Amino acid sequence: MPITVLQPQPAAKRQAAAMSVDSDSDSDSGGGAEVHGEDILTPGTVITSNSQWMRGHGTYVQPGETAITSSLAGTLTKTNKLLSVRPLRARYTPEIGDLVVGRIVEVQAKRWRVDVAASQLAILQISAINLPGGILRKRTETDELQIRSFFAEGDLVVAEVQQLHQDGAASLHTRSLKYGKLRNGVFVSVSGIGGGSGVVRAKRQVWTMDVANAGGKVDVLLGVNGYIWISKHIESDTNAEAVGINRMEESVSSKVYSSQNDPLELSTMREIARIRSVILALVENRLKVDEDMVTKGYSEAVELGRESPDDDLYLGGEKGQRLAAALTGH
Amino acid sequence: MPLDTSTYSLALLRVDGRRWNELRRLHAQIRTQDAADGSSYLEMGHTKVMCIVTGPSEQQQQRRGQTSQRDAAAINVNVVIAGFSSVDRKKSGRNDKRIQEIEVTIANALASNLHTHLFPHSSITISLHVLSQDGSLLAALLNATTLALIDAGIPMTDYIAACTAGSTSTYAAGDDSADPLLDLNNQEEQELPFLTVATLGDSDRIAVLVCESRVQVTRLEGMLVVGVDGCKQVKQFLDQVVREKGAEMVREGAVEKSDAMGMVLDE
């Protein structure tokens, strides 16, 4: 008697991501783009074969063909006739005018190389910083010789993207009193663009907030590249208007390149740590990190802290979810 | 021994109960490590691998051996096979030739697929960890790498989807028409000649083809056809994983919705 084997019955759907492709049923994907509101493009998807469109970032045209194809997983952006794909998540790509926090990784003869979480290191020329000793002066050989006295390896700087080079590398500058070396605080790194968490470009990236529990004032600096600096707010001792705009640089530059922290009170340190927990909780719960969310989240966190007898600063896990729920209103 | 070919010819069922053209259970997750640029976890049956992508980033101190001072990103692949991953605990040396060959194969396949010219002076590091092995190791590693690279947002031409194919026919029996097998497990890999094949997306373009066993050239075509067909099924699965993650992120408001519909563009 011959043995017969019946067609196996399809198993019950285990999980959402479980295999659901049958060996003989092929979903039709030969036609043009099937982009719907919630759908996304994946690498290799043909966006359009119409030649009136131009290809932008995240797309490519196979040599010998005219069809614009996606090279990323993401959503489509249309700017006039330019089609580009916004990735779900990617590394930071510098744009002119971005406020970034970076770490010096290399000191060269006339410039520093700065890690700004991009695909390449950024460049900070010695001519693009405020040199000590007064008004905008030319750099001299003495400055070049003591280049490490301004920034050394491992120092954190806040700077602005001045220009972009052909290969995508960025040049930074710190020619403003807002920029320069960072001290008296703590560094936090969140992921790059996309992914729903991390820093978003906003009207204000830097602000000073009054903190609870007699902590004084705290500066929060959200670098567009996802590097964040939270520090004690230092009042400049000379009145800016009294000194005049040109002399201002002279009065502060002596302190600008110091690597020595000022004395910090324990209460300030605790509040800085609390802001850091808030930012990490925002990221963990996939919320955007901007001024509004951080300030709101901070006041919620102060309330949460009062619940525990020793004012717990930790906001991971369940406490973080409560914080996120309070912020999103669910 | 483990796979008695006579049993197969009777019931046409393999040791684990599959038919000749069936894949094992596939399961994959994307974005498993928050701190990494891109990450994935993939299971093909009992073969379980994890992938982490770092980069594209510029190393401050370039190690001398690596050539990343070019106009395109360098691709570095590291494969670590956990000691507990197979039945017998083997301590693999630092420069195990088999692992090195897997690394080179993956790096070469990616070099032609990724758009590395967009990232000069930088390097992309891919760390692969094998947690459990039960055959089709190279295929699982390639699939996990594809997912992690998509998660990292690195532009690529198309998916690289891989699977294995083997042949049951024996020369002695003279059964040239015997079935080729798809997606071999460890037992079958020990017994039968097999090859690993990877294709680009939905096309028939082959990105990787590795065959380490002796096989008659007449069997090769059948194995290849079955393998390519399996790759298409794997690609469908990978695409589904990415799309589900993407749709989830759009729903959460993490990414903005697409601007235009496909219909509008083709007008």
Automatic annotation (TrEMBL), chain A:
Residues 41-78 form the Exosome complex component N-terminal domain. Keywords: Exosome, Nucleus, RNA-binding, rRNA processing. It comes from the Eukaryota. Residues 1-39 are annotated as: Disordered. GO terms for biological process: CUT catabolic process; exonucleolytic trimming to generate mature 3'-end of 5.8S rRNA from tricistronic rRNA transcript (SSU-rRNA, 5.8S rRNA, LSU-rRNA); nuclear mRNA surveillance; nuclear polyadenylation-dependent rRNA catabolic process; poly(A)-dependent snoRNA 3'-end processing; TRAMP-dependent tRNA surveillance pathway; U4 snRNA 3'-end processing. Residues 91-163 form the RRP4 S1 domain. GO terms for molecular function: RNA binding. Pfam families: ECR1_N, S1_RRP4. It is found in: Nucleus. Residues 7-18 have a biased composition (Low complexity). One of its GO terms (cellular component) is nuclear exosome (RNase complex). Belongs to the RRP4 family. This is Exosome complex component N-terminal domain-containing protein. The lineage of its organism: Eukaryota, Fungi, Dikarya, Ascomycota, Pezizomycotina.
UniProtKB/TrEMBL annotation, chain B:
Transmembrane segments: none annotated. GO terms for cellular component: cytoplasmic exosome (RNase complex); nuclear exosome (RNase complex); nucleolus. GO terms for molecular function: RNA binding. It is found in: Cytoplasm; Nucleus, Nucleolus. The keyword Magnesium does not apply. Coiled coil: none annotated. InterPro entries: ExoRNase_PH_dom1, ExoRNase_PH_dom2, ExoRNase_PH_dom2_sf, PNPase/RNase_PH_dom_sf, Ribosomal_Su5_D2-typ_SF, RNase_PH. Keywords: Cytoplasm, Exosome. SUPFAM superfamilies: Ribonuclease PH domain 2-like, Ribosomal protein S5 domain 2-like. Component of the RNA exosome complex. Specifically part of the catalytically inactive RNA exosome core complex (Exo-9) which may associate with the catalytic subunits RRP6 and DIS3 in cytoplasmic- and nuclear-specific RNA exosome complex forms. Exo-9 is formed by a hexameric base ring of RNase PH domain-containing subunits and a cap ring consisting of CSL4, RRP4 and RRP40. This is Ribosomal RNA-processing protein 41. It comes from Cylindrodendrum hubeiense.
